[in-house]
Amino acid sequence: MLQIDLLNQAKFVHKLQQFAKETRRNMAKVINNQLGNVAVTAIGTTYRTNTSQIASEIQRVEGKIITKKVFKPFGLTKSGKIKKRKIGEYVVGYKAKSVSYAGTYKLVNWLLKNRGLPTLGKTKLGLGGLGMGTKLGTIGALARRLVAGRKRSINYIRNGWAAAASVFGKRANLTRGDYSKEAIKRLGGGTKAEDKSALMEGMIFNRAGDLDTRYYPVRKRAVSGAVAVGKPGLEEAVKKVMGDMAVYLARKNKEASDKIRL
After folding, report:
1. Mind listing the pLDDT tens digit for each residue in 128-142?
2. Cα 108 versus chain centre, distance
3. Which of 6, 73, 139, 190 is the most exposed place for a label (fewest CB within 10 A)?
4. In whole angstroms, what is the distance from residue 245 CA to residue 223 CA?
5. Which pLDDT value is given to residue 175?
6. 51-58 and 139-152 are packed helices; what angle lies between their axes, rounded to 10 degrees?
């Protein structure tokens, strides 16, 4: 699971304390506001793939350049029709067409084997499990479902941070895509700091890593692909939020020193 808890963030906590002192705000409110800012920032700093990249990696795509020919009239035929001569050709677009999922079949059978399910040939029907639906299908059908699911999941980790941000009253401008509001809530969340608590602690978390079984066998303790992708984005988000607080504190210190000189 990707998370930020203040017990393991000494530098972040120190900056929060400085910020709360300077702004004369309630410490719990400062913690909650800045944790929300980290979650929102993490949406932008988390790596996001695109459907074209997914297609190029696990789906064979054949491209075709669309052109338009240019003709010039140069006379008439015996029947009175205009004669035209080709004088050029220019590109007007590009069309991509999926021609085969054969390369994806090995990935499907690898996932089936790791999940304890029987592997499939070209005609045998079987279940694919997570990411490939709950209906019986041939290996070709499972491969198509797998590719379609991967294309829909490009905001998978980012949606977890959107859910965490919403706990702290932050709204993220993020397209939900294939995920329902309930699904987003399951992906991430947080715990607010409270004034009355003896240990003032807040937390944001993203469960995308716990739910990610795309690359690794279920029930095996291996580093999740989602965690490997999401961790650098989270660390960068923390640095950015700390940087914003540092800029504010530096400006206030300068204003205070300028007043002393006067």
Report:
1. 877 787 888 888 888
2. 22
3. 73
4. 33
5. 47
6. 150
Rounded to whole angstroms, the Cα distance separating 138 from 154 reads 25
Which of 46-55, 87-96, 138-147: highest mean pLDDT? 138-147
Q: Please report the sign of the dihedral spanned by the C-alpha atoms of residue 155, residue 158, residue 164, residue 167.
A: negative
Checking if the pLDDT of 198 tops 60, the result is no
Q: In what order do the strands lie in the sheet with 188-191?
A: 2-5, 203-206, 188-191
User: For the range 139-148, what are the long-range contacts, defined as Cβ-Cβ under 8 Å and sequence gap of 24 or more?
Assistant: 139/105, 139/108, 139/109, 140/101, 140/105, 142/108, 143/101, 143/104, 143/105, 143/107, 143/108, 144/101, 146/58, 146/104, 146/107, 146/108, 146/111, 147/54, 147/55, 147/58, 147/59, 147/101, 147/104
C-alpha to C-alpha distance for 16 and 33, rounded to whole angstroms: 10
**Cα–Cα distance for residue pair 185/166, rounded to 1 Å:** 9
pLDDT over threshold 60, residue 178? no
